[in-house]
Amino acid sequence: MSTGFFWDERCFWHSGGNYAFLAPVGGLVQPLAAGGLPESPETKRRLKALMDVTGLSRALACQGAAPASWAELARVHPEDFLRKFKALSDEGGGELGLRTPFGKGGFETAALSAGLATGALRAVLRGELDNAYALSRPPGHHCLPDWPNGFCLLNNIAIAVEAVLAEGLARRVAVIDWDVHHGNGTEAIFYDRADVLTVSLHQDRNYPLDTGGVADRGRGDGLGVNVNVPLPPGTGEVGYLSAWDRIVEPVVDAFSPDVIVVACGFDASGVDPLSRMLLSAQSFAKLTDRAMALAARHCGGRLVLVHEGGYSELHVPFCGHAAIATLARSGIAADDPLGPRIAGQQPGAAFDRFVEAWIDDLVVALEI
């Protein structure tokens, strides 16, 4: 098996503005010692470093990719938005949306991030790789066509999907988003489409507060091809795997895609500062294994994971290592130092029954 790993040092150089966690500095908000937004380069850089130290990198086809072209970006984002983004980037940076600051050259870095996702998906569909992981930064799944938000400047996955559809490399694509926040941007871009299935597993009413409801099923040709799986805060591994088995799997089975793309956030981690979920590195390995089984059943194993959120500098590298090692079917391990702690915090049987009843209601609402 050949697993690709797409990355570029320049993506680690993306920088934002003067924030203290999620609040702009000023007034009574004092700058933090560490500075900046939770979306920092260190989670991704430490993941790559951990892979180098364990030797996992040497088991992968590590490579870069060209930035997404203007034409590729314009399939998803209006050209007037792209021109504003490019001009502000050239002038030294700024902010066009909500919590999406960028510095000089931010446009080029975002295009490179989208290019990594596009290169990974294209290589898998051309048969050059069995599967692949794209360490994209900045992330993308919150970005709407003309409004960046939630640290996302361009919608990496949507740009990649539109490219391979336009090139005739695929006709039907399933996007499964297990980032802890609702994939509102990807949903909005494909909401009217029948050729792209979007499924989002997320913490209920985390971010954005007003999207991600189970009743949002798509529109027009896309009716029924958008599926939201909001889960209650505190959902642990048992609940996540149940939601996958009872909702994600049958929905993807019914759609039968040519390729599966996972919006791979690690912010459902038990120690993530932006969520209240309880997953360990092993949990992400199990989700990856399930995604691989789905891909094997429907599309010859064609599967691409694209990095999204995850804000614990300690834990993200171990979660990512577990997912990528599973993707490569590698025995190279990096034991999760927080695994025992998170295992001890898993919900008890009573809460698991509550989550199962919650999933029962979702199954009924989605008519699965």
TrEMBL record:
Q: Name one Pfam family in it.
A: Hist_deacetyl
Known InterPro entries for this protein?
A: HDACs (IPR000286), His_deacetylse_dom (IPR023801), His_deacetylse_dom_sf (IPR037138), Ureohydrolase_dom_sf (IPR023696)
* Domain Histone deacetylase span(s) in chain numbering: 38-324
Instruction: List the GO molecular function terms.
Output: histone deacetylase activity
This protein's superkingdom?
A: Bacteria
Q: Which GO terms describe its biological process?
A: epigenetic regulation of gene expression
Similarity-based family = Belongs to the histone deacetylase family.
Q: What is this protein called?
A: Class II histone deacetylase
Look up and give the organism this protein is from. Palleronia pontilimi
